[in-house]
Amino acid sequence: GSKVARLDQIAGAPPSDWQRIPGCRFHLRCPMAIPRCRTEHPTLESIAPGRHSRCWRAQDLAAGVV
Description:
With 66 residues, the chain is of the alpha+beta class. Helix content is 17%, strand content 11%. Strands 1-2 form a two-stranded antiparallel ribbon. 8% of the residues are buried.
């Protein structure tokens, strides 16, 4: 079988469901957040066969740009 790399954890706790924050739910504690993360909720995108992401930086991360 194929191995899937483990994702790094983001420090801190996610906001509660009742806390409506603009943009990505992780932007307050993500070290790679960009201005767009603070204002726009990321859409679900395919980043590889069978792999999806809701991150504005997903393509950069996959390409090793960041």
